[in-house]
Amino acid sequence: MERGAATRDKVAKAVAGADAIEIKATIPNHQIRQALKRFGLSEKKEEERYIYFFDTPKLDLLGAGIIARARRVVGAAHDSTLKFRPVNPTDVGKKWRKFPDFKIEADASETGLVKSASFSMPVTRGLIKRVAVGKKPIDTIFTADQEEFLMTIAGHAIDFASLAVLGPLIAQRWQFKDPACPWPITAELWKREDGKRLMEVSIKAPVVQAAVAVGGFMAFLAEVGAERDKNQQTKTRWVLDYYVAKLARHPNRKTQAAKAPRQPAREASAAKRGRQPAGKRSRRRSG
After folding, report:
1. 127 and 143 in contact (C-beta within 8 Å)?
2. H/E element, 241
3. Residue 120 three-state SS
4. Fewer Cβ neighbours under 10 Å: the N or C end of the chain?
């Protein structure tokens, strides 16, 4: 491995402006059972989540670097998230950093590193289910602040009427410690309705530890015998490709949003929160 002047601050510059770094790796399908056993994880005991994505049949949002999703956690809070990547942290105003569930992270894997900004907000229990079956429009899950964030950071307004519900995924999540790894480990197991599974393990570390965290976590995975997943892809891509293919087989189900009467996205979100619609109040220009 090269060291010297050419590598000084290389990782520090790549993660500059991020609040933390998350290092992720997928476990090959044939090793999932072995990994669960190695880390002492049981599929019967941990919290169960249902994750829904929203995109067009051509994945226009994903193509623009945008992820729109909602999560139902059995026995816990529900939320929605808008995520955008890549992002330049210097373009993110202080306004957004004041929200408790807004964050800028450097996402690292064996294939590269990218900085992302994500903004999550709580969702009323039962609302996500009603949206999934067409009784409520998709835009009711997202707030006016989330939409304004996306317009400001990405310069992109979502046409919610063009979106489809993609999912749900059944997901389980564990957080645990291993004596051989100095950082707490998170494992997620995602299951599609066709029975296929994908497992991801990750750690989060302060940006000042980015270089040692990336190298150290990959070395840990090698030490415990986790093979490099030659078909590695993000969980999101793995999900969306499947459900978009399903939509193509059932074209009459492409746009769930059309099944329920709806207001324009910003007016609906603003009305829900008792605020004036964004079009009737001052708005920042996208940047």
Report:
1. no
2. helix 235-249
3. strand
4. N
